[in-house]
Design a protein that fits this description.
Number of helices: 14
Shape: elongated
Strand content: 5-15%
Helix content: 40-55%
CATH architecture of the largest domain: 3-Layer(aba) Sandwich
Oligomer: single chain
Bound molecules: nicotinamide-adenine-dinucleotide
CATH superfamily of the largest domain: NAD(P)-binding Rossmann-like Domain
Number of strands: 10
Distance between the termini: 55 Å
Largest sheet: 6 strands, parallel
Structural class: alpha/beta
CATH topology of the largest domain: Rossmann fold
Radius of gyration: 23 Å
CATH class of the largest domain: Alpha Beta
Number of domains: 2
Length: 330
Amino acid sequence: MKITVAGVGYVGLSLAVLLAQKHEVTAITTTERKAEKLNQFISPIQDEEIERFFKEVREGSRTLHLHTTTDKEAAYRDAELVIVATPTNYDDEHQFFDTSAVEDAIEWTLKVNPDVLMVIKSTIPVGYTDSVLKKYGVRSIIFSPEFLRESKALYDNLHPSRIVVGTYDDHRADAEMFADLLLEGARAEEQRAGLPEQNIPILIAHPTEAEAIKLFANTYLAVLERGTVGEVYNLGGHNEKTNIEIVKIILKELGKSEELITYVADRKGHDQRYAIDPTKAMRELGWAPTTMFADGIKLTIQWYKEHMDWMQECTSGDYTKYYEQMYGNR
Ligand SMILES: NC(=O)c1ccc[n+]([C@@H]2O[C@H](COP(=O)([O-])OP(=O)(O)OC[C@H]3O[C@@H](n4cnc5c(N)ncnc54)[C@H](O)[C@@H]3O)[C@@H](O)[C@H]2O)c1
């Protein structure tokens, strides 16, 4: 298969190398110098496994079908699959996720090769896949969160703890095909090194769920990796709202009248206020929310609307029956 990977940072390069064991991969970068280096199999990033693979290619003991170019048009035009691994940095000053490089890759692909499948591997805000499907009026964009660690990027792709792909049912076969490609890359190195087969679970999820998995994984990783033992970190979105404000937002989003609101007496000792101040987490962990409240609440409501069976199970009492069955005798 001819695969084009946009972006050769940790994510793009490790995926390009993983897939180039079995497929013809063209990697796109923005600088000629980086392309030249990569075409001589010299790694522009510090990563033990990529450096080992490249050394073996230079010595002639390994084959990688990998070519790097700055010619976007040719690279996107000839692809049978496009993987987007361009940067998406959080703009602190304006508080938004800069996804312009992802859109550049999508727009180029749609211009020169409109029917090809695109897989976003960049970190994106929750709801982003839906927003680009709508914006470009296509169905062929799926999202797969990347969980690698810098400097262990190829190792983590060769030994993934799980593979997650987010898509709708109409592109489930494509999502499974992509998961199989990642699996094939990991298996190829296992076989070569004579290692036992790893158990790698695959999860095909709704795009928004896949985005949320990445968001929560990042949040907890930030605390685990950069937090100090004994310190407390509050993770929140800098959004204080009253209950009645939230109720009105929900009604508006559901298209229901505010006349449905009924007031009840406050219970005794009612908590007056929850005020989660994430300033310390943002300052000390470099963590920042990727979804703003106004978008997040809409996505949450949308999720409930799309999972009415789950809602019915909760409200019918089956949920409490489960707890009774599991824990009733303890
Ligand atoms: N680094 C990590 O540990 C890690 C882990 C998981 C997810 N991610 C996410 O993956 C994405 C890429 O991260 P990275 O660390 O590999 O990035 P990076 O900044 O190291 O590399 C990005 C590459 O994209 C290229 N590029 C920029 N604009 C481009 C464009 N318009 N078209 C083609 N190429 C373009 C750059 O030249 C560079 O080679 C980001 O969204 C990041 O948040 C990173």
